[in-house]
Amino acid sequence: MNKIYKKLRKNTKGQYYLLSFCVFLSVLLVTSFSLMYFGPTVQEFLPEGGDTRKMASLLLGVTAVGCFVFTVYASGLFFRFKAREYGILMALGTEKRQLKRLLFQELSVVTALSSLMGIFISVPASFLIWKLFELFIISNEQMTYRFGAVGFLPGILFACVLAWVLGIAGRRFINRSDIMEILRTQQKTEMVKEMKRWTFPVGIVLTILGILLGAGLPQIAARVFAIGLPGAVNLFYLLSLAGIYFILLSAVAQSRAKKNRSKYYKNLVSISLMRFTAKATTKNMCVMTLLIFVCGFSSFYGMQYVLAGGAVHTENSKDFSLHYPVLENQIGKEEIVHTASDYGIEVTDYTENTAVNLVVSYRAKDFDEETSRYIDVYRDKETAALFVSESDFEKLSGQDIMAAHGTYQTVTTTGYNGFFEYEDGLQEAMNPDTGKTYPLTYGGTVESDVLAPFSEPFAYVVCDEEYREMTEGVKEAYKETIISFNAVNVEDSYDFAKDLLAQYTDRATDLSNHMGYWDIWAQKRADEAGEAYGYGDKINMTIDNNMLLDNWKYAPAFNIITVQDSMQMISVYVMLCLYIFIISLAAVSVMAYVRSISVAVDNKGLFESLTKLGADTRYKRNVLKKQIARIVQYPGMIGCVLGFVFAFVMDFMNDGMISALEIKALASLAVMLLGMGMILYTVYKYAMYKAEKIVM
């Protein structure tokens, strides 16, 4: 029996290679992913309990599921090829027990060797992938690849589960009691009735409606009706899934083909052949469509992070800006210019101004957990906000503005399109030391990416006369120094910026040792009431703290550091998205290939009958080509269009507009989808080549 099996393996070695490759690739991807994710570098970099860590854990699970799906699917083709062999051996009297032992031996050897090789190769693979990402980030000690042995555990667990599931599939395959069922495994049909003509348009409507409701309804409900919808609203996406199924079922069943009688009868064999397995083919295409959609969306998600990482400098910002309490002995113009000269950096447009924290009363939005609605609230003297004079703002921003007496202008970031905060919500400001209150009216907005990030919810500009009146008698503790400047050769200023940041951090004292949402007035109120202040904790102000710029109230904004060091965080997201992209694309390729080969194997007898009826090679190739092309073409087109539409809707519904950055990301997505189409075309050509060798 071993000798017989050895000969059988030679005849079907391609199926062993396919199954081995799928197991190897699955274990390799899952293990290399987990080695990087559970490595000390990423684990120390991601905030404990943060959304990023949760997202990464979710993507690890998605990675494992994706690898599991396409490996199990590839095993289905392996068992289909085994069906005829085992059926004949059973018909000749071979006992199931003997066949079961032989099959389990084969599956064990294939799974064990492929898994071990995948685990072994995962170490250099994860290292090389990490080095690839270092091309896009600043390579420093914090982002050095560090090996984490705990990353092997998910890979080993995945390999064990995969072996167990393949064993169950093999057991079910052998336990079929009906020999004829095994022999006719490749002859099963799953025809559908003729589909109504309305199926296709209804499918399109459901698909679009599901995307619009799932992505847009929460935003519309919040912005228009001030209602916060629960997570169950995501169930609307199921409408899109039903719509995709209707579209594909209508296309596969060729329900509209009879409209052109001559074309229908000319392609009768091809149309009927597709309908014989319409249900199975449609289900397969649905999974492929969703995987292609995942490919497109994951690549788009990663590209947006990359593009956003470089979109820091605007016409309303400067290369370097910082703020700190006036009472703190911090770096100033002398230290900045001296340090810049050491690095050959020329400082330009230097400005140094003073801003004052005044207590504000303003209107805002809040979310009511009990009613699930966004409600208007009035925050009466709860927090402080920065105020600057008209002349100081003109020096800082280079803009000419006009602030009338008794009015204020709200400082926003460039292109601000907020929803939860009212730019015109400020009602009055109070001097924290004198207690005198000054009513103010809204006078418009001005943009400054230097000043806006330094105050929550906004910073404000008032005329010079009113500024002097409002700030008279304010103690130094409520005042802040704001410095901003540009560099002529800013692209070469990274080392200068790091040195300046180190000096700034070293000279920081307890006066500025506060968390990002710390507020001087809220702290004072809590202290007077004898209550604990939620944002009163101190932070670790050292240059080695990689979360310093995100969590520090008085963190400086150095664009060169923000752009290049933020790529560390971005690279983690991109790495995760790249893995999902690779896995989904591999799954689609395997499923398309397996289904294409199944068409040839299942209908080999039909093509032999066509030959006997006088069909030439050209006709048979045309029939086969139409079958395989539809298997790849329909999911490819629908998945790519769906991915692009979903990305567009998500961006538009986010803020009601498409920004220049989002246009660039959508254009990049279109190029990426085109590249995916070329990869699928390559899979189609190879599958066609192998299928022709089977039936011709």
- Helix proportion range: 55-70%
Intertermini distance: 31 Å
Largest sheet: 10 strands, mixed
Beta strand %:
5-15%
Report on this model:
With 696 residues, the protein is of the alpha+beta class. It contains 22 helices and ten strands. The chain has helices at residues 2-11, 13-37, 40-45, 51-91, 96-133, 152-174, 179-183, 199-224, 237-253, 261-266, 268-276, 278-309, 333-342, 390-397, 464-471, 494-506, 520-529, 548-551, 559-602, 604-612, 617-655, 660-695, and strands at 320-325, 347-368, 373-389, 407-412, 421-430, 437-439, 441-447, 459-462, 479-487, 557-558. Strands 1, 2, 3, 4, 5, 6, 7, 8, 9 and 10 form a ten-stranded mixed β-sheet that branches.
At a glance:
The chain has 22 helices and 10 strands. It has 696 residues and is α+β, with helices and mostly antiparallel strands. A hairpin with a 4-residue loop joins β2 (347-368) and β3 (373-389).
Secondary structure elements and pairings:
Blueprint: H1 2-11, H2 13-37, H3 40-45, H4 51-91, H5 96-133, H6 152-174, H7 179-183, H8 199-224, H9 237-253, H10 261-266, H11 268-276, H12 278-309, E1 320-325, H13 333-342, E2 347-368, E3 373-389, H14 390-397, E4 407-412, E5 421-430, E6 437-439, E7 441-447, E8 459-462, H15 464-471, E9 479-487, H16 494-506, H17 520-529, H18 548-551, E10 557-558, H19 559-602, H20 604-612, H21 617-655, H22 660-695
Parallel strand pairs: 3-8, 4-7
Antiparallel strand pairs: 1-9, 1-10, 2-3, 2-5, 2-9, 4-8, 5-6
Helix pairs in contact: 2-4, 2-5, 2-6, 2-19, 4-6, 4-19, 5-6, 8-9, 8-21, 9-12, 9-21, 11-21, 12-19, 12-21, 12-22, 19-21, 19-22, 21-22
